[in-house]
Amino acid sequence: MAETAVADRPVATTPPIGEVIVETRNLTKIYRDFWGRKKKVALNALDLQIKRGEIFGLLGPNGSGKTTTIKLLLGLLFPTSGEATVFGMPAADVRKNERIGYLPEESYLYRFLNAEETLDFYGRLFDMPPDVRKQRAAELIRTVGLEQDRRRTLREYSKGMRQRIGLAQALINDPEFIILDEPTSGLDPNGTIWMKGLIRELRDKGKTVLMCSHRLDDVQAVCDRIAILYNGDLQELGEVEALVKDAVRVEVRAVNLRLTDALRTDLEAVIEKHGGKVESYGHPTTTLEDLFKKVVEESRARPGRRYLPAVDGKA
Amino acid sequence: MVASFAPILGVMKFETEPLTFENWRRLSWMGIDWLQDAGGFAMVGLVLWIANGLWNPVNDVLPGGKKRNRLVGPGMLLAGAIALTIYLVALGLMFIVSGEPAGTKTIQILGKRMTLMSFMLEMALAAGGLVAILGFGGPFLRDCLRLRWGRIYALAKLSFKEAVRKRVVWVFLFILLAYLFPARWFFQEKPEDELKSIIGVTVRGMNLLLIAVGLLLAAFSIPNDIKNQTIHTIVTKPVERFEIVLGRFFGYLALLTAALFGMTILGLGLINLGNVSEEAERESMKARVARYGQLEFAKMAKQKATAGEFTGVDVGREDTYRRYIAGHPQSTQRAVWNFNSVPSGYEKTDNVPLEFAFDIYRTTKGEEGAGVQVTFEIITHQWDPQKRIPDPRNPDVPITMEDAYNRDSQGLGNAKPGDAKWAKVDQLAQQYGKYVYRNWQIFDYHTTSIPVPSGLFRNAAEGKPKEDPNSLTPGRLPYRLQVQVKCETPSQFVGAARYDLYFLESEGNFSLNYMKGAFGIWFRLVIALAIAVALSTYLAGVLSFLIAMFVFIGGFFLEFIQEMAKGLNIGGGPMESFARLIKNSTATVELDPTPTVRTLQMFDSAWRWGFRRILNVIPDVDRYGLTEYVAQGFDIGPDFLLLNFITLLGYVLPWLVAAYYLLKAREIAA
């Protein structure tokens, strides 16, 4: 399957030059039942390399093997065959974890602790000295925007807040390699924007990020390279831009124009002259994210701004 | 379990022989037994681990591209091969031993009499066990070097906080019920037994609360972490999995230790605030430091306690802890305690109390309000009644020691310290090595004492004791001091066990002893937590809790379980018992050897074989009933605590090693 996908790939891709942080060779995970009978092939002969400084996205529908791959890399699962190395160390070696940060899909943290205690606890697991731990925790609480709520126990947090503190615990050791499983899950649009910004910021600081998400727009917005998995098989691998680039279509945008019949006729004539064919016309729409951003920014700039119905009574 | 009835009986009873450094032979055998038992389990673990490691290898890729199996190293394989070879040799020796004729020459090794081949077999099993332990424990020890106390502390603190914030600690307040409703409201008892009851009830309450809470916390902690996936954020940090086990274990242990400390202080406060009657205070609010001897039963022949077939009279009581001597002025039956060392502190005082409490078995009602008369004859190794010594009164005619002593001790009676005659008694005791106290009146299970002059101990301390040909106990050291007890009252029997008589060396502080007694509960807590945490690394919370509970509770019935495993109990195994139920047959009646019965008994044999294999998993929790010592007013020595702690480690360590392997082999996210 993987070979077919490679053959069909429209654009050849090469990973960015850099030290290999993660490498899997023929990595396979088969779940078996109590009697050892094969139940499901969760991951089939995955060959992958992730290099330093890139944001790598793992895509695929539910049950495609994304989370299994992450769990194998973290040593939470053991491979049925094949190998996985992180920083050149076997995935089962806990020493590699010194340089890794991991945000699970749900923020699985101890809800009887508050934010400060949570970060202190995880800091201790890295044997960080008390003063460093304290300083780092304060810094991260500020970064994730939980200063006001740092003394509240996590059971009082909303899902988005838990995701934020989850990210903070993943960054407590200032890791070189960060694994984010559904990082924007549970976040409001503002939070999502913030999270994406933070991921890019991490990349800019030289960190390597591996993320998996169902929200394709998020992946497209931040990832340098992606792998698409389906049913445990690697279906596609490459740079996002190259993979989404449509080499046989052309998009032209213009301002100060209205779409009239005359314009359509002229455009069709020009395009036909160059051997092309018009597929559709239209006024472009902005993304909801951009609209939301614009509204929030305006609200901040003009306190008291509120929605008013149109004069004719329609919204 | 008998030990728990001791307060009702009013005297100390030992279900398990207390450990002492003096009995190093027994300690050596305990060590050998441990190597054999733990080694056997290690061998099973080693075989399973190697099979799993070879079947499902987890490979590291070496710089040269070569693969190395992470699970099974060459050292482990080598140890497995050597241990297997030694076990095969042991199997051969087993075959030889089983064919040895009855009269094969025996030798005495470390106080045990056995044939040379039996000894070789014991050593082979121990050696095989040692190699298996090294092979199986090797990776464990290597990984232990990577453990960081900072991380273990963080995990322990988390466990502690979790229990506190989930308000588990409130459960411990239930102990107040034991104090709000004193035992004397429910049980009628002698006033002197009141303290024993208070300690008994509260200690049972503490045991129940602490161990139940401990088992619940420990059994559900790791399974809940796995279920809630909180463990994912821990194992993806540089945390060794065994650190999680230790963190949980120490965290809960800290919490329960704090609760135990609080309860102990509370109990001590209530006892010291005058809630105990004066009689009880006199009887039990002490911390006696006792020197025990070894008990034999003997018949007197020619003024000497002579070994023979006599091992005490069985008066037909169900409880066979004590044997009895018949009472009569002419009775030859004696209960004899041999001491191979003299009690300390005799140099500083003119007497050392000999304390005792006996059971009385009456065949006639006797005199109203009167006890039973008992005579104590205490001799040293230098006392030889037939030995001829120069007579100071008539130097030309030697006289026997017996005659000289009888003549010189005329008119001294039962002198007491402070009497004018005491100095003379003391001098005679030192001169001859004998002291007699006649017709002391004893009451059922009532602790009293007689003074023994220090001169006797000075005599006993001199010279080297001779080997005693009359000893009934094989391997017993020659005595320095011997206490012979004779019942003088006709038609009455006096029942004695080893710990019913002792020299009182000193008395310690009761409160301190009470605190030391709490260590017994603490030892039990450690066992309960270790079992539950180890099981929870692999099993679900409910299963871990139930199995840990059954294993722990099984410890209280260890003797009975051992009897069942060895086929010594009355009524047979489960199948035979079932057949008896169906047939409505009593347990003592021999079943007809029909084919059905024989088949059932065969199943029982197989069941017993399997049962014997798991017998060592059951902890000897009765060993740690230290509060019995406190309740009876006996001091708990530091060496005793230390030895119990060592045996505790011997039991807990294999569980922790099992936990290490179980969690290491487990896919956390599966």
Question: What does the secondary structure layout of this molecule look like, with pairings?
Answer:
The complex is a heterodimer of chains A (315) and B (670).
Chain A: H1 2-8, E1 20-32, E2 38-51, E3 55-59, H2 66-74, E4 81-86, E5 89-90, E6 100-103, H3 115-125, H4 130-143, H5 159-170, E7 177-181, H6 189-204, E8 208-212, H7 216-222, E9 225-230, E10 233-239, H8 240-244, H9 261-273, H10 288-301
Parallel strand pairs in A: 3-8, 3-9, 6-7, 7-8
Antiparallel strand pairs in A: 1-2, 1-4, 4-5, 9-10
Helix pairs in contact in A: 3-4
Chain B: H1 6-9, H2 24-55, E1 59-61, E2 67-69, H3 74-98, E3 106-109, E4 112-115, H4 116-144, H5 149-165, H6 175-180, H7 194-227, H8 232-235, H9 241-272, H10 278-284, E5 287-292, E6 294-301, E7 304-306, E8 323-326, E9 333-339, E10 351-356, E11 359-362, E12 372-380, E13 388-391, E14 394-400, H11 401-408, H12 422-432, E15 434-442, E16 448-453, H13 454-461, E17 481-487, E18 492-496, E19 501-508, H14 510-536, H15 541-554, H16 558-566, H17 574-583, H18 595-614, H19 627-632, H20 638-664
